[in-house]
Amino acid sequence: MFISTAFAQTAGGEASGAGILVQMAPLVLIFVVFYFLLIRPQQKKMKEHKAKIDAVKKGDQVVTGGGLIGKVVRVDDIYADVELAPNMKVKAVKSTLTDVIDPTTAKPAND
């Protein structure tokens, strides 16, 4: 009925090493799932958006972060001048542009 001290320490030491791996496996699995389902697609989406905004050129129709739609009249590294109405231009930071509208698929608002 009595277990020797040396035997109890050896058996307990081996079991705790395997126990740590068993306890860490679900955490590692959750991290892997989060990476492939959430983190990686978000990084890909951000990279595509940055490439689209960096490619903005004069004549493109854009949507600003505030929801305003206008035509780009001038672009530099940081800013884009956007014409919202005839003779009404605003200077917008390029990083605040949310979308570039494709002129082939855009329809007038009153149609």
From TrEMBL:
Where would you find this protein in the cell?
A: Cell membrane
Which keywords does UniProt give here?
A: Cell membrane, Membrane, Protein transport, Translocation, Transmembrane, Transmembrane helix, Transport
Name the InterPro entries on file.
Cell/Rod_1, Preprotein_translocase_YajC
- Which family would the database say this protein is a member of? Belongs to the YajC family.
Query: Which proteins does it associate with, and in what oligomeric form?
Result: Part of the SecDF-YidC-YajC translocase complex. The SecDF-YidC-YajC translocase forms a supercomplex with SecYEG, called the holo-translocon (HTL).
Q: What does this protein do?
A: The SecYEG-SecDF-YajC-YidC holo-translocon (HTL) protein secretase/insertase is a supercomplex required for protein secretion, insertion of proteins into membranes, and assembly of membrane protein complexes. While the SecYEG complex is essential for assembly of a number of proteins and complexes, the SecDF-YajC-YidC subcomplex facilitates these functions.
Q: Could you identify this protein by its name?
A: Sec translocon accessory complex subunit YajC
Organism annotation: Sphingobium xenophagum
